[in-house]
Design brief:
Shape: globular
CATH architecture: Beta Barrel
CATH class: Mainly Beta
Largest sheet: 8 strands, antiparallel, barrel
Mean pLDDT: 87
CATH topology: Lipocalin
Low-confidence stretches: 5-11, 13-25
Order of helices and strands: HHEHHEEEEEEEHE
Oligomer: single chain
Distance between the termini: 55 Å
Helix content: 25-40%
Strand order of the largest sheet: 1-2-3-4-5-6-7-8
Strand content: 25-35%
Length: about 200
């Protein structure tokens, strides 16, 4: 009888831990910080698109929380389990003209990105990834450049799978200049994004 009681107690403990883990999944999913449907917006007219697509590595030191979590879910094939795991992503975007290799968690996935609707709008499609990655969260995006200094930084608003919006500030350096940070915040706030959901990760 004693053994049965111990066994039941262990089952109860494991069940509680499983529920807690599921709760963490739900709390840190990209969907839990989604900011609504896609926006119809105009691209920044002064964009030098030749500069944008030059081969280089971009960092993303500032973005919506939904952006970071979406990328984490694409790399991992699941929502992150903790803030620490999200911070461990260390996202890099390796751009070679129309091809972007997205790097994080020692994983990668590749998108092909082609201009559409004139300079400043880019259609990106997931084409391949390392084992464990999932295209479900990021199968296709329409990216609109809403501001750039044409030297170091590009602010992009994204429509993901035709359903959700988010944004990113891509830079040639991980260092976030205060003037660029303030400009990005000003622009995304004017577009209706929640400034309480701005995140900073390198």
């Amino acid at each position: 009888m004693e053994k049965i009681l111990v066994l039941l107690a262990l089952v109860s403990v494991f069940s509680a831990l499983a529920q807690l883990q599921y709760s963490d999944y739900a709390d840190l999913s990209a969907e839990s910080v989604a900011e609504g449907e896609c926006l119809k917006i105009t691209a920044y007219p002064a964009t030098n698109f030749t500069w944008v697509i030059q081969p280089r590595v971009f960092y993303v030191p500032m973005a919506s929380e939904h952006y970071y979590r979406t990328y984490a879910e694409t790399f991992l094939g699941r929502p992150v389990l903790s803030e620490e795991e999200l911070n461990d992503m260390r996202l890099r975007l390796d751009v070679v003209y129309s091809r972007i290799a997205n790097l994080g968690y020692d994983q990668h996935f590749v998108q092909v990105c082609l201009p559409m609707g004139g300079h400043g709008k880019i259609n990106c499609t997931y084409v391949s990834g390392s084992p464990g990655t999932s295209a479900a969260s990021l199968e296709m995006t329409l990216d609109t450049i809403v501001w750039t200094d044409n030297r170091t930084a590009i602010l992009v608003v994204r429509c993901i799978n035709g359903q959700r919006r988010n944004w990113k500030l891509a830079q040639v350096t991980p260092y976030l200049d205060p003037e660029v940070k303030n400009k990005a915040k000003e622009v995304i706030e004017s577009l209706g994004f929640n400034t309480n959901l701005i995140s900073y990760r390198v």
